[in-house]
Amino acid sequence: MGNGSIPNFNEDPVQHFGNLGHIVYLVLNLVWMLSVALAVIFLVIGGIQYIVSGGDKEGVASARQRITGTVIGLIIAISAWTIRTIMIKAICTDPAQCQNITGG
């Protein structure tokens, strides 16, 4: 890096961003955090929609559909994260190699 806090991109970019595995790991972490945050938001919206519906059949059905879709999406996200973790552990036999992939 340069003297200040702004990186000097004329240097080797691998020093600033790591390898491709590390970049993919960071992107997947971001996607994971966003999916969980969105799931919580949609669950809250579905719950509010359910409460506000006041027994209206269409409102209740819409709220249930939103909550069900959110739970299914969250299950898919958790499954994808689990598969990713299992694959990394299966592929990485060298701890140093795993650190490059997972950023740890």
Overview of this protein structure:
This protein has about 100 residues and is an all-alpha fold. The protein has a domain of about 70 residues. About 80% of the residues lie in helices and about 0% in strands. The chain has four helices and no strands. α2 packs antiparallel against α3. It starts with 12 loop residues before the first helix and ends with a helix.
What is shown here, in short?
With 104 residues, the protein is mostly helical. It is built from four helices and no strands.
- Mean pLDDT across every amino acid position: 79
Shape: elongated
Low-confidence stretches: none
Largest sheet report: none
Q: What order do the helices and strands follow?
A: HHHH
Report how far the terminal alpha carbons are from each other.
21 Å
What structural class should be given to the helix and strand makeup?
A: mainly alpha
Helical residue percent band: over 70%
Task: List the keywords.
104 residues, elongated, mainly alpha, 4 helices
Outline the secondary-structure elements.
Layout (H helix, E strand, L loop, with lengths): L12 H5 L2 H33 L4 H35 L3 H8 L2
Helix pairs in contact: 2-3
